[in-house]
Amino acid sequence: MRDNVVVNIGPEPLTFGEVVAVARHGAAVRLTDDAVAAMAAARTRVDELAESPTPAYGVSTGFGALATRHIAPELRAQLQRSLVRSHAAGAGPEVETEVTRALMLLRLHTLATGHTGVRPRVAKVLEAMLNAGITPVVHEYGSLGCSGDLAPLSHVALAIMGEGAVRDSGGNPVAAAEALKQAGVEPVELAAKEGLALINGTDGMLGMLVLAMDDLARLFKTADIAAAMSVEALLGTDRVFAADLQALRPHPGQAASAANLRTLLRDSGIMASHRDGTCTRVQDAYSLRCAPQVAGAARDTLAHAASVAMRELASAIDNPVVLADGRVESNGNFHGAPVGYVLDFLAIAVADVASISERRTDRMLDVARNHGLPAFLADDPGVDSGHMIAQYTQAAIVSELKRLAAPASVDSIPSSAMQEDHVSMGWSAARKLRRAIEGLTRVLAVEILTAARAIDLRAPHTPAPATGAVVTALRQSVPGPGPDRFLAPEIESVVRMVADASVVAAAEAVTGPLA
């Protein structure tokens, strides 16, 4: 649990930072008085509908294709229990704790808007679970991304009822009833509409989008660092990154990436070594020269995704919803298309950033293209293989990333006896994006590891202070050039440095914050 950090949950939108703080870093949450008042007011209207003889969807009827049945008052508590139990039908591996905490937080926020009609007590149990570090077991499969992330959210709702499986704050598997008891939390018997309100949202896919944005902001900076190191290693030029050239095509992401490259390559001794008029090359290969165009397009894609996520964080997604004038209306806001599209779009950007990274790595290993470096950067080529197979690993990951870039959101499979006849598959888009981000992390790590070795082999010429700082940071755990050695642990060491932002921190210690 992050010390002294408390995120207030009220009707106002959450920020990206607040979602990351709670989901990834264990920050506490607190329902505001405004949230409690809004929920209580909306609940009054739901209770009125529950007492009315006129059927109201989700309050006094069945669900989905069974919505035509009017449910007698004495069966409505059972209706809610049955809904949650039957919909908690997830299967496959358990998803990550941070993903489950994100969807719990985002569902709590929607409850706090007062548009779902749940009692404040229900929201307070969810609040208490987050603060106690109780994480329901949620599975990989079970959401079609429409009518909400139904199965994932149902496993959370089941825990609120004191049923099902959870993990405690130490990550140990515990029965939900026991975990709640140990935390001093009383489970809830759900009343009219409350089961439906707990499961009818796009919170899982949105939570994964926000977490992905946090990862990609770091990885796109890392991609610029890797590109700068490869430009030096391959005796490339930074003249193509000049601000006036970039301004001829005024994409903001491209401008930011090119500015980073100029900053990272400033005062490079390696570059100065081939600016004496002896270099006969007219221009660099695309993987060097077009680095800001590709990384910049990825940045602009991320910015578009952020605009969608901001609107989603300002949303109250449920069906039916309680409106400010007291009306309770059915709607289609649970459809995950807006989120699914950008999740797929980001997977395309991730695949392409990885692809250009792999091409730079391959160029550094090829004696015909690396401008004086030994074949595969080997100590004794033929006896040693150097980084030959590290590039194979990169290539295998890039190939997988291309498959993961195939959009999930163009697929739809009808469900609920054709009542739910078009779905978004947004949860699936989010799951594959998470796998793609892990792949990009590894691809960039291999490029950085290879470029650092190539930079060392350019001695006595020295790298730029910023790229040199990255090489120095790597050398704390990864030795420099030499005879072949067990390479997998070295790759994993750099993967950790990319993932925990150590690579970015090393560069920014020299440059200041990169764009």
TrEMBL record:
Family that this chain belongs to: Belongs to the PAL/histidase family.
The encoding gene: hutH_1
EC number(s) stated in the UniProt entry for this protein: 4.3.1.3
Alphabetic keyword roster: Cytoplasm, Histidine metabolism, Lyase
Post-translational modification: Contains an active site 4-methylidene-imidazol-5-one (MIO), which is formed autocatalytically by cyclization and dehydration of residues Cys-Ser-Gly.
GO terms for cellular component: cytoplasm
UniProt GO BP: L-histidine catabolic process to glutamate and formamide; L-histidine catabolic process to glutamate and formate
Main location group: cytoplasm
Keyword Oxidoreductase attributed: no
Catalytic activity: L-histidine = trans-urocanate + NH4(+)
Taxonomy of the source species: Bacteria, Bacillati, Actinomycetota, Actinomycetes, Streptosporangiales
Compartment(s) of residence: Cytoplasm
Modified residues (2,3-didehydroalanine (Ser)): S147
Coiled-coil stretches: none
Protein name: Histidine ammonia-lyase
Transcription regulation in keyword set: no
Domain of life: Bacteria
Enzyme class: lyase
Pathway membership: Amino-acid degradation; L-histidine degradation into L-glutamate; N-formimidoyl-L-glutamate from L-histidine: step 1/3
Cross-link 5-imidazolinone (Ala-Gly) residue location(s): C146-G148
Species of the source: Planobispora takensis
Any one GO molecular function term: histidine ammonia-lyase activity
